Amino acid sequence: MSPLITCRKLHKRFGAIEVLRDINLEVHTGEVVVIVGPSGSGKSTLLRCLNVLEPISGGELEVGGKRLGDRRTRKRDIRRETGMVFQQFNLFPHMTARENVMLGPRKVRRQSRREAAALADRLLDRVGLADRSHHYPSELSGGQQQRVAIARALAVNPRVMLFDEPTSALDPELRGEVLQVMQGLAAEGMTMLIVTHEMRFAADVASRLIFMDEGRILHDGDPKVLFESPPSDRFRDFLRHVQT
Amino acid sequence: MDFRWDVVWNALPQMVDGAQLTAQITLLGIGGGLIIGTLCGLVTAFRVPILHWLVFAYVSVIRGTPIVVQAMFIYFALPLALDITLSGFAAASLCLAMNAGAYITEIVRGAVQSIDKGLQDAGLALGMSYPQVLLSIVGPLAFRRTIPPLGNQFIISLKDSALFLVIGVAELAQKGEQLTAQTGRALEIWTAVAVFYLIMTFTLAMIMRLIERRMRIL
Ligand SMILES: Nc1ncnc2c1ncn2[C@@H]1O[C@H](COP(=O)(O)OP(=O)(O)OP(=O)(O)O)[C@@H](O)[C@H]1O
Ligand SMILES: [Mg+2]
């Protein structure tokens, strides 16, 4: 089967700064890829390039069979194949949890209000927030907000979910509920790319681990193998830093 | 010195006339200002090529000159330059609209730019088009944020309308001047004029407060 995501020689520059260098990556359906790496190594930028929130500077990108640069492919077509969950949740503050989840189906999938509401209720139930659907984001805890954000991203029925440090802005005691939802998604076979510093989660849930350093993919492989025998000093140093 | 209520009583009809004119000029001024300010504010917020330089020039001129000078210019100089005639009322409304428009431009620009970029990203990431993101997310949020500063600007504009007495518009302040000359009772007349302004600004403030309360500012 052809990969869900293909990057070939992907480059990204901000002005003169090269942030992603020669990224080659294939992600297949059902893979749970955890991306780790030091701050500034380009993890967020990579995710943002995958759904074209950042324009790429060079190379090829194909997501869900849609090639960037094809005349018939709009950025929006690629974004519809991907759902994104942000570190800062980014819920729409003027909408209730339910309206947040409904917006995508309404605007992007052109669903009726009734259909979208039914879908939103189902997804909120799935992330354990059926009883919070009429709350505004400001009335929800961080963990609850992030779960709404996951439901919102799922609502447009993406084929791959991108998570950028989904638990980093949360108090430690609220991280579990979000990780649990993500683990549930993984178990159901959702394809996911997750940037995180949660090494336990990576070890338990990831089917594949990517270590990024200075804009490059330095290692890419089985998390158990990589954790047990780190193949480079850079990765060993990194692991020592995050584990303390 | 005693306060003669009968002077106030007799002046009342003329003052009501003046207050009406003040209200009309103010409404036209802030209505026009809202249209100008919204358009120009969006032009600067999204840095529309070329146009945003024109808006920048416009805002700079208005902010950099006293409103009295703007009124004099529009009433006396502009008709000469364009070979047209402008009534005092038209000049006053136009002047207030131009003046408020410049400040509202800054209010709108500030509100749009204050909306967290992450929300725009979240909308785009869902696959929404840019216009959809503006209409459903950035617009409604920015609109809420303009309400408090707009209320402030409306009150400033209402009070600024008093200076149109310099171009002979028979608004409230000009009536005050006229009535003082007629009656020689500055205390009563100017007290009454002040009370009229207070009532109008207070009403405006209450309306804005109500809107603010009905719409949660986020
Ligand atoms: N919009 C931007 N303009 C200019 N430089 C940027 C921009 N976004 C990111 N960068 C730079 O790109 C590099 C990679 O940033 P990125 O956010 O992708 O790193 P990261 O691996 O996600 O780091 P962190 O773990 O801190 O989130 C950094 O040096 C950053 O300063
Ligand atoms: Mg990051």
Features:
heterodimer, A: 244 residues, alpha/beta, six-stranded mixed β-sheet, four-stranded antiparallel β-sheet, 10 strands, globular, B: 218 residues, mainly alpha, MetI-like fold, 8 helices, 0% strand, flat, binds adenosine-5'-triphosphate, binds magnesium ion
Sum this structure up briefly.
Chain A is of the alpha/beta class and 244 residues long. Helix content of chain A is 38%, strand content 25%.
What is the helical fraction of chain B, as a range of percent?
Answer: over 70%
Number of helices of chain A: 9
Determine the structural class of chain A based on helices, strands and strand pairing. alpha/beta
CATH class of chain B: Mainly Alpha
- Uncertain segments of chain B: none
Assembly state of the chains shown: heterodimer
Gyration radius of chain B, in Å: 21 Å
The number of distinct structural domains of chain B comes to 1
Query: What ligands can be seen in this structure?
Result: adenosine-5'-triphosphate, magnesium ion
Give the H and E element order of chain B. Answer: HHHHHHHH
Arrangement of strands in the largest sheet of chain A: 6-7-8-3-9-10
| CATH topology value of chain B | MetI-like fold
Mean pLDDT of chain B comes to 94
Please state the second-level CATH architecture of chain B: Orthogonal Bundle
Measured between the Cα atoms of the first and last residue of chain B, the distance is 53 Å
Beta-strand share of residues of chain B: under 5%
Q: What is the global morphology of chain A?
A: globular
* Distance separating the two termini of chain A: 41 Å
